[in-house]
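Human: We require from you a standard protein entry with sequence in single-letter code and fold as tokens, and nothing else.

Assistant:
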Amino acid sequence: MENLKQIFESAKIKHIVFKSKVKSYLYGTDTPLEPILNYRVCSFGQWIYDVGLNHFNHLPEMHQLEKVHRQIHEHATHLVNLKDSERTEMALAGLPQLETLAQDIVDLLTQIQKKAGED
């Protein structure tokens, strides 16, 4: 397996890219919606199913990460729907919750990386 630090840095970057796509869309930038709306299409979702679960399936935090990842996509979809129905201010007001879920993902990635390093 490639360097553990590299695996997790890659995951964090993919996650940050997702978050920026959601914000870009809400602020009116033309952004592809499929990676925002579909938790399996975004690059972080691909990391979870191609790398994370393959290598760290034995860790409960990995399953929690998968759950929080689905939650962040549900929330992002809700924000996109608000924006699409001309309720941009409400959509933007939902960004702090997106940030909270995003921080949960980073925290879980850090915990998984630490535990994986102990194996």
Summary: The chain has one domain: 4-118.
